[in-house]
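Q: Got a minute? One more chain.
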Amino acid sequence: MLIRTNSRKQDRSVKGVIRMSVARPLGRVLSHRSESKPSVMIGLLPRVLRFAAICATTLFFILVIINTNPSANNETVSSVDEEAALIDSALYTRVEFFGSQAYVPYPTAEARNRLSDLQTKYPNRPEVYLRLAQFDEKLGREEDALKNMRAFVEHEPDKMKGLTGLAQYFHRRAQFAAEGETLERMLDIAPQDRRTAIFRDLLQLAETHLLEKYLSPAFLNQTVEKNPDTFEIVNHYIDRLTEQKNFQQALNLVRQYKAKFPEQTDVTLEMEVSLLDHLHRTKEAEAIYHAAFDPFWTAAQNDKYYGFLKEHDRYRTYGYELRDKFNRNPANRETANRLIH
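A: Always. Here it is, folded:
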């Protein structure tokens, strides 16, 4: 019993020592953390106050600069707003309906006269000329409308926008020759990626209204000279001739321009062979295909080549001819390459 009692006392004393050894460091850590938070905040407080003072000083000087010279910052905005407000005031009037304000347009003639007075104040503003032209067109004043449309093009910085509006005006007035001339001007100044679309519109206009100037090969030559890198223009022109079954004229153009676009050899070759086929000149088409043969053709190009021969019942016969030619002269590499491919 004495042994057991002593052992229990020893266990209790050991546990108490362990608890004290753990509790004391833990208490120190917790007390250190609780003391560190206020110290950190006290250390950061001067920095925060200094940053806030700098921001307040900077904001104060910015406000002083703005207030001392407001016209320098608002001159452009106020002038634009003033012009826009004046245009609106020339075109619309305020009317009260059931206690609320509404904008009601002036009659066309009165709005035109008010806008004309505004044009005197702003002689270089393109929007004023455009609106004047629209009012003149509604009032049947064709000369004034055309005059103001030309002034709009002259004062508009974006010439493509101005010429597009002028072309639309001529189209509405059924002045197709003048519209064609405007499209021709657009073709000269348009970005490269828009010229094909403009050329397409010009050709369609010329075909619909028989504007022979734009359907002649001379105009195409002139256009290609101005746009030497735009194969799409020639391609579109040839496609239109093919749709109209003008195969000989289309063939002449292909042969005329294929040397100017060597990077489009595959396209021009296919065009030439197809046009000769439409003209029932099959032997000539086959000779051109044979002359253009390239052992490095892609699989698709080879399929077109041999597909043409099969379509005209020349595939087997041509194979016999090649074998016979090779047997007579086995050293001919060209014949060997054609047999392999």
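A: Residues 133 and 148 are 5 Å apart (CA to CA).
Q: Perfect, thanks.
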